[in-house]
Amino acid sequence: MDQHLGGSGEPTMDSITAGPDGIFYRPRGASVGDVIPYFADGEFKLFYLHIWRVPPAQQGVRGWYLLGTNDFVHYREEGPCHIPGGTGSVVKVGDLYHLFYCIFPKGTQIICHATSPDLLHWDKHPEEDFAPDPTYYEQSDWRDPLVFWNEQESQWWMLVAARARSSYNRSGCVGLCVSTDLKTWQARPPLHTPNISLGALECPDLFRMGDWWYLIYSTYTDRFVTQYRMSRTLEGPWLAPAVDTFDGRAYYAAKTGTDGRRRYLFGWNPTRTENEYHWNPPGYAGFDHATWDWGGHLIVHELVQLPDGRLNVRLPDSVADAYQSPQPLPLSEAVGSWRIDATGAETVSEQGFACATAGPLPSRALISTRFCFRPGTRRLGLMVRASKALDQGYQIQFEPDRQRLVFKSYVFSDEHGGKIPTGEVDLERPLALQPDRDHHVTLLLDQTVCEVYVNDEIALSTRMYDLPAGDLACYVTDGAARFESLTLKVPTL
Prior knowledge:
By secondary structure, this protein is mostly beta strands. The chain is 2% helix and 52% strand. The protein contains two helices and 33 strands. It has helices spanning 13-17, 317-320, and strands at 2-4, 30-40, 43-52, 63-69, 76-80, 86-93, 96-103, 110-116, 123-124, 137-150, 155-164, 172-179, 186-192, 202-209, 212-220, 224-231, 252-258, 263-270, 296-305, 311-314, 323-327, 332-335, 338-340, 344-360, 364-373, 379-386, 394-399, 404-408, 427-430, 439-446, 449-454, 458-463, 471-491. Strands 21, 22, 23, 24, 25, 26, 27, 28, 29, 30, 31, 32 and 33 form a 13-stranded antiparallel β-sheet that branches. The protein is globular, with a radius of gyration of 23 Å.
């Protein structure tokens, strides 16, 4: 049983396409920040931090906003909740909802409480605000409260993104407070202190699935990811699985919610258009190599528990079902020798690159294929928005020798090698790749958003800005492979 406790100048590609009219939600003139999921009345009530991306004179109410959805494709906008603070959680006791959030007065961080009969109109209780207890916690980090009823101890627990008291800076932790009335809280020692992160372990989430407890949090210092730990008991030990992340750098602050049957992970895919941290390459006119912003589009993954307790992620069925209109894929040989038939294409290219193309891609699409490769194959994958000359394009690349999936943004077509970013790849995810076995990949494109799912196992979120159009292609480098059942569908919104 799954039991939850608990810019200026010319228009950018993102400013043109932003809005609630695509598969992945983003409010017009703004971005989705941290999401606080709550399930009630047969749908997910998704509170989120509304991040304005328009000049101050055009901005509306700040803080928490509310969405309703039952399929993660169509969203009903309920508007602002008039909670001008940071991330938190919602619980219901009797007919009253309790919302816990954080505020940041004069550089400090304070946890606050509000109540509501309808999830939209909230009464704040400032007399109950509280700061971190210096006995256990540093004063600099105290936010993102998660409140739930602990049946084992018959009291309320609150997890907090915090830093434990320490003479060292590696003190990011999941703090703990307890209460009997949801009004006054007593600090306890941290629930989890790995002594790794320089900052607080953000947006903590806790739930039980089967015989395992799962603790989820996001980090932004040593690693910029949402990760998880697992334990047989709330007392720990909190174990790190071999792959302890759900997605990569371009997916953050994810929290979970369940409808009683399935559990989903709600996070955001950041934009790259705002240069909030003033870290963009000088003289670079595009966005694919700009810094990641805070907030973007809402992305939902479904969590799947394996027999040994590890968690995988997959594309939610309701999102896949939104793509109902098949489009032709006229595969043709481009580089190397290919055998193309009614069900797929294969090539042997043991000493170089071979590529087959399939024509232009729409801006919104679901691409799906199975692939199988021979032992010794070094590289294979899909290229999207590829140029006719194949010198530009985004690569979804599988590397059996390194047991990983990588995303590579387009190749620069000039000879000035110093322009190429310092990293060999943009993003990567660990992935078990076995020869002579079928692997399934699903790729979702929604304007600048790109989501990759492999084997109902891992996800990789990214962005594609600088090349708004181009062809689909499949390729192999130094090896042999077959791509089977290659399909393309567009959404019917």
